[in-house]
Design a protein that fits this description.
This protein is α+β, with helices and mostly antiparallel strands. The protein is 47% helix and 12% strand.
Amino acid sequence: MTTVGINNSSSYASIFSTSATSNWIADTMTAIQNQQNQGGLLGMLNDARGDNSLNSFLGKSANFSNSLATISQTSITNAGSLIAQIASSKAQEAKAKKLQDALAELSRTQHMVQKKNTLDPIIYFADGSRIDTNANIMTMVDGTQYDTTTGLKYVDQSSIMKLANGGTLNTKTNIMTMPDGTQIDIVTGLPV
């Protein structure tokens, strides 16, 4: 139910002020006309003068009811949208936490298991040669070493000096290797 009131604050002040001017009647009429245009009790009473007052009242009531229904439906839709956004955000946070926890658990279990070489660190053969299974180096009886993964002679890289012409010098064996592959014993000067 709507109430009768004067929306215009200047009209309200002019009606009840002690120094009312002669314009208070015009202001009151303007306020009444505004109330009639907006509906309300005065608008309903104005509609009651015509032949179709019941039709007009029901039409305005239906429009008012539709407006309230639209407001209510919009509120429900907005609330549902907000709840869906919050739920989606919470689901993403939960998924990210589960993923982080799984990665942390995987990392923890990987550090628990230590890689273990099942071979002995050094395998000795009957002829006196041996294989270092950690460094993958086979040492023959005469001291020659081979890389067990490639089959090539093993050269300790800390004893190799690179020369300006592209050659190398093995300071452990005193063998200089030229860029073309020729090897020279630097003590005797003879090719190897």
